[in-house]
Fold this protein.
Amino acid sequence: MQFSELGLIPEIQLAVSEAGYTEPTPIQQQAIPFVLAGRDVMGAAQTGTGKTAGFTLPLLQRLAPHANSLPSPARHPVRALLLTPTRELAVQVFESVQTYGKYLPLRAVCIYGGVPMGPQTQELLQGREIVVATPGRLLDHVESRNISFAQVSLLVLDEADRMLDMGFIPDIRRILALLPQVRQSLLFSATFSDEIRKLAASMLRDPVRVEVARNNSAAETVTHRVLVVSEHDKRAALTDLLLADPRQALVFVNTKFGASRLAVHLARQGIQADAIHGDKSQQQRTEALEAFKRGEVRVLVATDVAARGLDIEDLPFVVNFELPGNAEDYVHRIGRTGRAGKSGEAMSLMDAGEEKRLLEIEKLLGRAIPRETVDVTGSGGRGERRERGTERAPSAGRAASARRRSPVAVPAHIAADGFDFSKPYEPSTDSANTDAGTPLERTVRRRDRQVAALLGGLPKNPG
Ligand code: AMP
């Protein structure tokens, strides 16, 4: 299918052509006709599928009859509200609005926290048809009476699952209560928990459900790999990996503190690196991201929250320095690579304590990820990777024992614990219950406790 078959008006079609897109992605093919027809949409799509253009293009077309170049603010009331969980995603959506709307005299503003309110207030008072915003700062403007929602006829809630994770649902409900009842609403989410469904039911009218791939699935174009390495050897393994492979990489860690420390460590090893996380100012985050996009920074170390919404084209390589505690975050992380059909690689460094997380991720993805081992040198290039189950690597301790107790060649659809991937995904319900889990998981926990005892005692508050 070609974009020209979607019935987009010439102003938008031209902007799409100039952006270099000829064929709509599957989510665009499905969503655009329904949005143009005025229907509410519940979209199951993750980052990297082209969903942003999927809602931006038809939204611009719905607003096009109101486009005008008159100076009066009264001629530019807020007509469309696009809510995103993070500043980075807000900027990305705003940039799409500007790119695809460049031949339409519609005004847009991007509203997010961490920067002074003044310039945003000024823009709002001048009149803006399209407001892209994070919920907290938008409510600040509501309280300051800088914005009126009386004319809002279109609402987009992007990455609703992340809104939920970040605790924004009460803010969203407050905003919803301020909007006109008669409006068109679109909700996009990578995953649909009961709570998201409840939210969708309360804000959508007779929605059409559009979906790309299976829920919770990751881009098919991404190669997943796992390197089994001891916690102690992780930094050296990462250094080896980055010195041997000159590509730019986005490296995920689980904590803000870990992000800064790892970036400093890499810089000391001669690898240009910067970190973005929630404690950095918006300006620092933007600068780091821009430097990364320009190729001036080779490695960007990021936490999940800070990386949300990063749109980095052609990023071939994502590394998980630690596996995320939540399997769905893995899907979000690797959504940074393999975008829009391009091929990408996701490499995870896993220590023995993270095996359970990997099993959850494999269940969510619906496939097993091959484990590899490596001889860690910490100086780059000399580490030799091999499929696990072959000759033992010389590094001692927990990594070696992890290899011994871990699965070797298993059929692609059967996990190490016997889980059958052909079954639908069911999230783990009680990860805190230490007696829960498969025999393999219980063995891993027992052994971890033994190792912990050998290393000087068990933590007072495990988990
Ligand atoms: P998104 O899922 O909206 O974050 O988009 C992922 C990436 O796909 C972005 O870099 C877009 O510029 C790109 N993209 C969006 N639509 C298309 C298309 N129809 N063809 C090729 N690339 C696209």
